[in-house]
């Protein structure tokens, strides 16, 4: 008869360095996910602007040839047009001062009486 030699198996042992590496690799996806959430979604939450109340603005339709500058001069002749354009741009969340004929834009209520 032949004898079969059975060798005992040893348990995997992690050293202190191995445990640190394992913990780092396990925590890495959580850190990446939190970083993406803070960088990507934080901008929307960081805005301190509250929404405009119901009576805070009036809507107008842009006519052919009108610009934000001409509208600002029309609705608020005694005010610096740069300030009025800035308010209209912020209120309508415009990327720049480009508007098109037929577009409806909101004008702050303080300036509506002049239109």
Category by helix and strand content: mainly alpha
Tell me roughly what share of residues is in helical segments: 40-55%
- Share in β-strands: 5-15%
| Mean pLDDT across every amino acid position | 83
Gyration radius from CA atoms, angstroms: 32 Å
Question: Order of SSEs, N→C?
Answer: HEHHE
The first-to-last residue Cα distance is: 110 Å
Q: Using DSSP, what is the number of strands?
A: 2
Strand order of the largest sheet: 1-2
Provide structural commentary.
The mean pLDDT is 83. α2 (68-75) packs across α3. It is built from 3 helices and 2 strands. The N and C termini lie far apart (110 Å). The chain is rod-shaped. The chain is mainly α. A two-stranded antiparallel ribbon has the order 1-2.
Name the descriptors.
rod-shaped, 115 residues, 2 strands
């Amino acid at each position: 008869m032949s004898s079969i030699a059975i060798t005992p198996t040893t348990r995997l042992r992690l050293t202190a360095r191995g445990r640190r590496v394992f913990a780092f690799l396990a925590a890495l996806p959580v850190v990446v996910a939190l970083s993406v959430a803070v960088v990507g979604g934080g901008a929307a939450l960081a805005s301190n602007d509250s929404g405009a109340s119901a009576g805070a603005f009036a809507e107008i339709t842009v006519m052919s040839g009108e610009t934000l500058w001409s509208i600002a001069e029309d609705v608020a002749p005694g005010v610096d047009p740069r300030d009025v354009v800035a308010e209209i741009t912020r209120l309508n969340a415009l990327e720049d001062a480009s508007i098109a004929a037929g577009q409806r834009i909101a004008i702050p209520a303080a300036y509506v009486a002049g239109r």
